[in-house]
């Protein structure tokens, strides 16, 4: 793309988010997202990166009417707790009207713009979730 300046770190961050990598603790066996150098459950540093499933279930959600600078134009924002089976993820829920969301409904990961960074307008992408197609069929 013309005029696009993306450094290697940002590129790595994108790939990493796109693949929906989480962490898994070799000590207690629990998975978590985002991946951390230390297990949030037992504090073990014996953790590995694992690829998380892209399909999950919506556990609960919150509607945020006041959101941070840069994301304001998309207000209100729906933030959901998604159960991927091996781990629970807090993520923005997109392509959904608040009234149509139900606890337990199927959701899937999508690759979307997260936020725009600074004066250079670098757009950072990441994983969000949307209702899975089977909900409407
Ligand atoms: Zn652990």
Assembly state of the chains shown = single chain
Estimate what percentage of residues fall within beta strands.
35-45%
Q: Helix share of residues?
A: under 10%
CA radius of gyration: 16 Å
Supply the number of structural domains: 1
Tally of strands: 8
Strand order of the largest sheet: 6-5-4-7-8
| Unreliable sequence segments | none
**Count of helical stretches:** 1
Largest sheet: 5 strands, antiparallel
Explain how this protein is built.
With 137 residues, the chain is mainly beta. The chain has one domain (8-135). 8% of the residues lie in helices and 42% in strands. It contains one helix and eight strands, in the order αββββββββ. It has one helix spanning 8-18; strands spanning 21-25, 31-32, 47-51, 55-64, 77-83, 88-93, 106-117, 122-131. A five-stranded antiparallel beta sheet has the order 6-5-4-7-8. The longest helix has 11 residues, at 8-18. The structure holds zinc ion (ZN). The site of zinc ion has 8 residues, from loops. Zinc ion (ZN) binds next to loops.
Write the layout of secondary structure elements.
Elements (H helix, E strand, L loop, with lengths): L7 H11 L2 E5 L5 E2 L14 E5 L3 E10 L12 E7 L4 E6 L12 E12 L4 E10 L6
Antiparallel strand pairs: 1-2, 1-3, 4-5, 4-7, 5-6, 7-8
This protein binds zinc ion (ZN).
Short description:
The protein is mostly beta strands.
Keywords:
single chain; 137 residues; mainly beta; five-stranded antiparallel sheet; three-stranded antiparallel sheet; 1 helix; globular; binds zinc ion
């Amino acid at each position: 793309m013309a005029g696009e300046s993306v450094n290697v770190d940002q590129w790595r961050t994108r790939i990493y988010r796109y693949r929906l990598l989480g962490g898994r603790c070799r000590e207690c066996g629990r998975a978590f997202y985002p991946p951390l150098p230390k297990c949030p459950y037992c504090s073990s540093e014996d953790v590995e990166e694992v690829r998380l499933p892209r399909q999950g279930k919506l556990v609960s959600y919150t509607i945020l009417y006041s959101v941070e600078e840069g994301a304001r134009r998309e207000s209100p924002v729906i933030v959901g707790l998604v159960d991927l089976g091996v781990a629970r993820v807090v993520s923005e829920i997109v392509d959904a009207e608040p009234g149509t969301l139900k606890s337990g409904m199927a959701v899937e990961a999508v690759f979307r713009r997260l936020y725009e960074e600074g004066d250079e307008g670098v757009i950072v992408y990441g994983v969000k979730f949307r209702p899975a197609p089977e909900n409407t069929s």
